[in-house]
Automatic annotation (TrEMBL):
It is found in: Cell membrane. Belongs to the EamA transporter family. Pfam families: EamA. Its main location: membrane. It comes from Streptomyces pristinaespiralis (strain ATCC 25486 / DSM 40338 / CBS 914.69 / JCM 4507 / KCC S-0507 / NBRC 13074 / NRRL 2958 / 5647). This is EamA domain-containing protein. Residues 21-148, 158-296 form the EamA domain. It comes from the Bacteria. SUPFAM superfamilies: Multidrug resistance efflux transporter EmrE. One of its GO terms (cellular component) is plasma membrane.
Amino acid sequence: MSSIAVPAPALAPRRAWLTDLPVLLVAVVWGASYLAAKGITTTHTVVAVLVLRFALVLPALAVAGRRRLRSLTAAQWRGAGLLGLILSAVFLLETYGVVHTSATNAGLIISLTMIFTPLAEAAVTRRRPPSSFLAAAAVSVTGVVLLTQGAGFTTPSAGDLLMLLAAVVRTVHVLAMARIKAVRGADSLSLTTVQLGAAVAVFAVLAVLPGSGASPWAVAVGFGPREWAGLVFLSVSCTLFAFFVQMWAVRRSSPSRVSLLLGTEPLWAAAAGIAIGGEHIGTVGLVGAALVLAGTTWGRRAADRADC
């Protein structure tokens, strides 16, 4: 805090890194989540896995924030519920997408949300983005084209297209959070709990519909130790741990610094896919991945400068 004198200036960077490291770990587990989801999910178990993933973590969130949940107004419940419906679409698209593409592609394509969001916001507010941001967006899109064509120029896979659509719906979710007045002053924990509760309700309804695939119970019974380890990783590390670290870090650091660290997620997705998953994207794909990372980083910084 600016009002507290620091006796030894060298301690400030050290304290900053004590906050940065858990946030960086969140980016790492989020990057690895695509490979984990791919390892325990098939086309016929997507809905069941989503039910299990969030049903495991939702009670802990509800217990932790039960007092603040009771203080939400009816309008805040409705707003958070609407956000939860959008969030359920994001998770469905992401999970179906990662089943049909590589973890590397999934993590890099979804990072386009960082480019789509300022573009969509500019369209809504009728403000033209800075030229540097538009250039960064062009670099990112070029990178995605090269990434998805690493084995030769062919039609992008269904998974690639689903991940691209997931990035678009994620953008809608971010804009809705910013524009729904009722939720602006809502407690973060309560807002997240209601959103996840609404999403789980959607998944539970889908799970009982004909043609939705295996039931959550059948999938849970059929899981072995490896699958349960993957599910617990997705539930505890990628949801519960990640959420609480973000809440903790944003109170001890700047939102821009937290965002910059979380923005390394696609790098870790690529690293996990290649190093652990044995994925190969070829020279063209590597060039595309580098362009996606460069474009999203450049675009984030350009958008931050425009907001200053």
